[in-house]
Amino acid sequence: MEDNIKFSKHKEVLRIGYERYCNLDALEVPFTDAIPSDFDGIMGVPITFLDRYDPDQFEIIANRGRPR
């Protein structure tokens, strides 16, 4: 993860690194190309991640939308 932060092309990731959610033990990943290769926990990723989703590499565990 340190290399992802150090060599990121996104100012948000370079400046503050990866933020964590306050109500869930998960990492906030603001861009699909900023997904850390060595993180083995839960990540919140952008919806555009679904275009690149590989079921052999990632597992979608939940889609928790707001109740209506």
Give your account of this protein's structure:
The protein has 2 helices and 3 strands. The protein has 68 residues and is an alpha+beta fold. The termini are far apart.
Would you summarize the structure shown here?
With 68 residues, this protein is α+β, with helices and mostly antiparallel strands. Helices cover 16% and strands 9% of the residues.
Biggest sheet character: 3 strands, mixed
- How would you state the average pLDDT, rounded? 81
Given helix and strand content, the structural type is alpha+beta
Radius of gyration: 13 Å
Proportion in β-strands: 5-15%
Q: What string, H for helix and E for strand, traces the elements in order? A: HHEEE
Shape: globular
Strand order of the largest sheet: 1-2-3
Instruction: Give helix % range.
Output: 10-25%
Q: Could you give the count of β-strands?
A: 3
Unreliable residue runs: none
Number of helices: 2
Distance between the termini: 36 Å
What brief labels describe this structure?
single chain, alpha+beta, 3-stranded mixed sheet, 16% helix, globular
Draw up the topology in text.
Layout: H1 2-6, H2 11-16, E1 19-20, E2 27-28, E3 43-44
Parallel strand pairs: 2-3
Antiparallel strand pairs: 1-2
